[in-house]
Automatic annotation (TrEMBL):
Organism: Lentilactobacillus buchneri subsp. silagei CD034
PANTHER family tied to this protein: SODIUM/HYDROGEN EXCHANGER, SODIUM_HYDROGEN EXCHANGER 7
Record carries keyword Transport: yes
UniProt-recorded name of the protein: Sodium, potassium, lithium and rubidium/H(+) antiporter
Locations listed in the record: Cell membrane
Length: 706
């Protein structure tokens, strides 16, 4: 397949996988993408030619730069101990011990390849780690472990992996040389990332002082930064590009978004641009994993020394080995931390280490995009031209460990956590970690959900609009209230259980039928009184019929209007009659249609009022939001039918803008009220305020475009 066609196909499958994830949220989108990639390989015969250099540059550089750029500032210094421990000791332990055990269970795999496989399997998906550890409510010491490793182990694991691959390709290995090279490429990579990022920030600041402060320019410069840092470090300094991009990301996180830039839109544009990039790259990595699975499987099947079932067993054993190493390490670290805390603080009630907590933290070690990106970069041949030893098996085992870790975490997460939210991985999470779990002092506090908070602040906005409604802004007020009511209605239906929701929908449809009968009667009366023409009468009836058909489809049943053939004939006759009438007359009937719209809406409101006034109707059973939404809809129709001049239209735009600003101000006040009353934490308040800020930004952009 041509490279351009492959890119289009992969991006289409990334989008489709997230659509599937919306309907099947219990399954991580990463697994869905693996399955789609497998289907593309088997059905469409898709193949992706991979080369080490461009694959690491294209996928690893932006992924790790984004990790460093988004690592929480408050935790970075606090986690310096766990970060260094996991970056050096745990990765080293996993590589050496895991490599030895891998060679024992796979004797045909050379030591260097076993070490490379263990090294590339040491990085964990940081989003999945946080997703599991937060929901499992692990002790603080273990949270430090799993948080610290989620950033640095990508870089250190890739360094160990790269050196093991080089040893396999060249056939040369020296402990002394390896140690010296490791120190050089690590330190030089770190320094290189700091220096290059510092130079880029200095250049950007200089350009800003010269008046080159375009937001798009700054965003493009930021996106190209990890590629520049990686290439310069790898090609000219021969150091670790992965450590360089992590260091660059951290420096940018601290100094690259200074508040004195007076460009708040830069944060908005750059963050969303990065979301799109990471969203696409992570999805493509897992799709490529699925595409590569048949190749690995075919080669393993053709290998006389091992069959597919044995390879599956090896994958499971490899996952168990990695799990055991993590559990023992985390248990030991927790024990040492507890002893140290008691010695320093003399607190005897300090929580002692438990095997269960260590096991849960071990299960949180889901392997993800970085592991797959690294293992797919294994070269096809070594220096003497021979095939790379055990490449297909290494790829198969790595893919198997990724899938097993995802499946096990998906199955165990609902069992170990009260929160039933699905497992998140890099592929379906783009939230800024700085917004996660900050400012919440009491983890046991009872907070309302985000949907409940949004309903509350939007109801305050509607109340403010009602207070500001005047005769000269009726239409704009009803337009805005209708928009808010639609959002409130959708959120409230999500908050209701299925039985309650079905009851509310049934009652709402009953009210709509009452209003529809009133509309039909009004149209018929206008026609009988000869206030409208036959053409306008037919148009109005056709519109009402379409509305009724949508109502029927919304409840999944059809109304019996006679035999199907007769019903279709009546529809065809009406359409032909309407077409003939339109052909015969050229007169403008817009005034008649406006009259119909006004009288229909008035009749619908009157019909609803009469219905609620009946003694046999229990008004308390109807949802207040449903009734309010319906009344506002018809009052809005009355305003829309009025004749408006060009000046009035301009005034309407200004009125709408003014009401929208006041509604957003009411939403902000609502967020503050919820925060002060203890209904939400600081993290939720920041998220809600961010949503309001985005809405205000869109409002300003619309005003500028007009």
């Amino acid at each position: 397949m041509h490279i351009l066609e492959a890119v289009i196909l992969l991006m289409t499958l990334v989008v489709f996988s997230n659509v599937v994830d919306h309907f099947v949220p219990a399954v991580p989108v990463s697994l869905i993408q693996v399955v789609l990639g497998l289907g593309a390989a088997l059905i469409m015969r898709v193949t992706i030619p991979l080369e080490t250099d461009w694959f690491l540059l294209l996928f690893i550089a932006p992924l790790l730069f984004n990790d460093g750029r988004r690592f929480p500032k408050q935790e970075l210094w606090k986690l310096r101990g766990p970060i260094l421990a996991n970056a050096i000791v745990l990765v080293f332990l996993t590589t050496i011990l895991g490599g030895l055990l891998f060679h024992l269970i796979i004797p045909t795999m050379p030591f260097s390849v076993s070490f490379a496989l263990a090294a590339i399997l040491s990085p964990t998906d940081p989003v999945a780690v946080q997703s599991i550890s937060k929901r499992a409510k692990l002790p603080e010491g273990i949270l430090h472990i799993v948080s610290g490793e989620s950033l640095i182990n990508d870089a250190s694991g890739l360094i160990a992996f790269k050196y093991a691959i080089a040893a396999t390709v060249t056939g040369v290995f020296s402990i002394k040389t390896a140690a010296i090279d490791f120190v050089y490429i690590s330190i030089m990579g770190f320094v290189s990332g700091l220096v290059i990022m510092g130079l880029i920030l200095m250049i950007e600041n200089w350009l800003y002082r010269q008046g080159i402060n375009d937001v798009i320019f700054s965003t493009v410069l930021q996106v190209t930064t990890p590629f520049v840092v990686y290439l310069v470090t790898e090609e000219f300094l021969h150091a670790s590009g992965v450590i360089a991009v992590v260091a660059a990301g951290i420096i940018f996180h601290f100094y690259g978004t200074a508040p004195d830039r007076s460009q708040p839109e830069l944060k908005l544009v750059s963050e969303k641009t990065w979301d799109i990039i990471i969203y696409t790259l992570n999805g493509i990595v897992f799709l490529i994993l699925g595409i590569e699975l048949p190749l690995a499987t075919t080669n393993v099947i053709q290998n006389n020394k091992i069959n597919t079932f044995a390879a599956l067993g090896i994958s499971f054993l490899a996952w168990l080995i990695l799990l055991a190493i993590r559990v023992v390490w985390i248990y030991a670290y927790q024990a040492v931390s507890s002893i140290r805390s008691r010695k320093i603080k003399s607190i005897q009630t300090k929580q002692m280490p438990t095997f269960k907590a260590a096991l849960l933290a071990g299960l949180s070690g889901v392997r993800g995009a970085v592991t797959m990106a690294g293992v797919l970069s294994i070269p096809m041949t070594i220096d003497n031209g021979s095939p790379f030893p055990s490449r297909s098996l290494a790829l198969f085992v790595a893919a198997g460990v990724i899938i097993i870790s995802l499946v096990v975490a998906t199955v165990t997460l609902p069992l170990i956590s009260e929160d039933k939210a699905p497992l998140l991985t890099r592929a379906n999470s783009t939230d800024d970690p700085d917004e996660i779990d900050t400012g919440s002092a009491d983890s046991d506090a009872e907070y309302i959900s985000e949907d409940e908070a949004r309903v509350y602040i939007m109801k305050l906005a509607v109340q403010r609009i009602e207070e500001e409604r005047r005769p000269n802004n009726q239409k704009e007020a009803f337009d805005l209230i209708l928009d808010y009511q639609f959002l409130i209605r959708r959120l409230e239906l999500k908050l209701q259980d299925k039985k309650e929701m079905d009851s509310i929908i049934a009652d709402e449809l009953a009210l709509r039928r009452v209003a529809l009968r009133g509309e039909r009667a009004a149209v018929q009366k206008l026609f009988d009184d000869q206030k409208i023409s036959k053409q306008a009468f037919l148009i109005a009836n056709a519109k009402l019929q379409r509305l009724e058909n949508r109502m029927i489809r919304s409840v999944g049943r059809k109304v019996k209007l006679g035999h199907g053939t007769a019903r279709n004939f009546i529809k065809l006759r009406n359409r032909v009659s309407l077409w003939l009438i339109r052909r015969k007359t050229n007169e403008d009937i817009s005034d008649e249609l406006a009259l119909i719209q006004r009288e229909q809406a008035k009749a619908a409101i009157s019909a609803l009022s009469d219905y609620f006034a009946r003694d046999d109707i229990d008004n308390q059973r109807f949802d207040s939001q449903s009734v309010y939404h319906l009344i506002v809809h018809y009052r809005n129709q009355i305003e829309l039918a009025k004749d408006h001049s060009k000046k009035q239209i301009n005034d309407q735009a200004m009125n709408y803008q003014s009401l929208r600003i006041k509604a957003l101000a009411a939403e902000r006040e609502g967020v503050q009220v919820l925060l002060e009353q203890g209904n939400i934490d600081w993290s939720m308040a920041a998220h809600l305020r961010q949503y309001i800020n985005y809405s205000e930004t869109v409002l300003i952009m619309d005003y500028q475009n007009e």
